[in-house]
C-alpha cells in the first residue's frame, strides 16, 4: 500500500533540474548578487502583472511581509491592530513586535476565518488597522471587512500568505487590503524550496516604506545611508529564479487542487450527520492550499487514517490568545469559543496537485469507510 504523507518529500521533484540550474547560475554569475538582484526584480514584476498591484516588493518570508506592512503603516506602541484569534502566530507577533497591541477577534464557526461581526465591537480610538487572514481553503469576507474598515477610516493588512491565486468577486487575494502579503513557504499555494514572500500595495508611499524597511532602512540608491531602522527581510536570488521557472505552471497546480477539493466536498457532504463538516463548496474566494475538515471524532479519524497509510495534519491546536506568548494581550474574561472549536476540530488531509485520481479516491473512501 502506497503511503500518502501529508508533507510529501517529492513536492518539487518535477522541478529539481531547474532548482539545481538556478543555484548554479546565481552562484557563478559574475555579478555575485545573492539577494535583491535582477531575478528578484523580475519576479516582483511578474507578480505585479499577474495581480494588477501598483507595486510588489519581495521580502524574506510571509512573516517578514506582515512585519513590513505594520512598519510601513507606522504602527507602534499604544496602537491596536485587530487580528484573528484562530490563525498562524505571525498575525499577532508582527503587531506585538512593533510594540503595538494585537486585539483578537473570534472567527466564523464554519469557514474558520475572522468573523466580520466580531470586528466592530473591538474598534477603539487606538485601533490603527485590521488584519484579516485567509485560511485553509477560504478567503476572509473581504467585502464586509473593507466596508467596516472604510467606515472607520482604517487601513487593512490582508494576510493572503496562503491564498495567492485565489479570486473573490473578481478581485485577487492580496489586492483587497491597503497592503497584501503572500508567503512562498514550501506548503503554501506558490510555495518554494525555501523561504520568501511579497508585499503588494497600490500606495507608492507605502511601497517605498516597505522597500526601505526590508533592507535596513536604505533607499536602494545610497548604500549605508539609513533613513529608518528597518530590518533584514530580503529576497534570495536562487529562490527568485526558481519561482520564475514555476510561475507559468502555477495556475495548473491551483486548478488541480481545486478539482480535488470539489471531489472531496461532494464525497464528504453526506457525512455532515456524522459530525464532519467539509468547507463550503464552490470556487469563488477559494484557496485550496490546504483542505481542512471539521471533525468531532478527530483523534479517532486521524488514527484510522494513519493505520491506512494516509497522513493528516492539525493546524493551530491552541488559539492565539490562549498561547502563553500572547497571554498579556488576552483580556480577562474574554473568550473566543469559535476559535477554540476550530482548534479542537480542524483536520487537514492531503491535497497535493501531484496526487493521482486513485490516491484522491482512496483518501475519500477511507474517510467515508471510517464513518460507515
Ligand atoms: C495565514 C498565515 N499568515 C502568515 C504566515 C507566515 O508566512 P511565512 O511562513 O512565510 O513566514 C503563514 C505561514 O505559515 C500563514 O499560514
TrEMBL record:
SUPFAM superfamilies: PLP-dependent transferases. This is DegT/DnrJ/EryC1/StrS family aminotransferase. One of its GO terms (molecular function) is transaminase activity. Pfam families: DegT_DnrJ_EryC1 (PF01041). The lineage of its organism: Bacteria, Bacillati, Actinomycetota, Actinomycetes, Kitasatosporales. Keywords: Aminotransferase, Pyridoxal phosphate, Transferase. It comes from the Bacteria. It comes from Streptomyces beihaiensis. Coiled coil: none annotated. Signal peptide: none annotated. Belongs to the DegT/DnrJ/EryC1 family.
Amino acid at each position: 500500500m502506497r503511503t500518502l504523507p501529508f508533507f510529501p518529500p517529492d513536492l518539487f521533484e518535477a522541478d529539481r533540474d531547474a532548482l539545481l540550474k538556478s543555484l548554479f547560475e546565481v552562484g557563478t554569475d559574475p555579478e555575485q548578487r545573492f539577494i535583491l538582484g535582477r531575478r528578484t526584480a523580475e519576479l516582483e514584476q511578474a507578480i505585479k502583472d499577474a495581480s494588477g498591484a501598483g507595486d510588489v516588493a519581495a521580502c524574506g518570508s510571509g512573516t517578514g511581509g506582515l512585519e513590513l506592512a505594520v512598519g510601513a503603516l507606522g504602527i507602534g506602541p499604544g496602537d491596536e491592530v485587530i487580528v484573528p484569534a484562530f490563525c498562524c502566530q505571525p498575525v499577532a507577533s508582527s503587531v506585538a513586535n512593533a510594540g503595538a497591541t494585537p486585539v483578537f477577534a473570534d472567527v466564523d464557526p464554519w469557514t474558520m476565518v475572522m468573523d466580520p461581526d466580531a470586528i466592530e465591537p473591538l474598534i477603539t480610538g487606538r485601533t490603527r488597522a485590521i488584519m484579516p487572514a485567509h485560511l485553509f481553503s477560504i478567503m476572509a469576507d473581504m467585502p464586509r471587512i473593507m466596508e467596516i474598515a472604510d467606515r472607520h477610516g482604517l487601513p487593512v493588512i490582508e494576510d493572503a500568505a496562503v491564498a495567492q491565486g485565489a479570486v473573490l468577486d473578481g478581485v485577487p487575494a492580496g489586492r483587497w487590503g491597503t497592503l497584501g502579503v503572500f508567503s512562498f513557504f514550501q506548503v503554501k499555494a506558490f510555495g518554494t524550496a525555501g523561504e520568501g514572500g511579497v508585499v503588494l500595495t497600490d500606495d507608492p508611499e507605502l511601497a517605498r516604506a516597505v522597500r526601505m524597511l526590508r533592507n535596513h532602512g536604505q533607499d536602494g540608491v545610497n548604500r549605508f545611508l539609513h533613513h529608518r531602522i528597518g530590518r533584514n527581510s530580503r529576497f534570495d536570488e536562487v529562490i527568485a529564479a526558481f519561482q520564475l521557472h514555476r510561475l507559468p505552471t502555477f495556475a495548473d497546480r491551483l486548478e488541480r487542487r481545486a478539482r480535488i477539493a470539489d471531489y472531496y466536498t461532494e464525497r464528504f457532504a453526506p457525512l455532515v450527520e456524522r459530525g464532519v463538516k467539509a468547507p463550503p463548496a464552490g470556487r469563488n474566494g477559494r484557496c485550496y492550499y490546504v483542505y481542512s475538515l471539521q471533525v468531532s471524532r478527530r483523534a479517532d479519524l486521524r488514527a484510522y487514517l494513519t493505520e491506512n497509510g494516509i497522513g493528516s495534519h492539525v493546524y493551530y491546536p491552541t488559539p492565539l490568545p490562549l498561547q502563553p506568548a500572547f497571554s498579556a494581550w488576552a483580556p480577562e474574561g474574554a473568550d473566543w469559543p469559535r476559535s477554540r472549536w476550530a482548534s479542537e476540530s480542524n483536520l487537514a488531509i492531503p491535497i497535493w496537485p501531484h496526487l493521482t485520481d486513485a490516491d484522491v479516491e482512496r483518501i475519500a473512501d477511507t474517510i467515508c469507510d471510517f464513518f460507515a
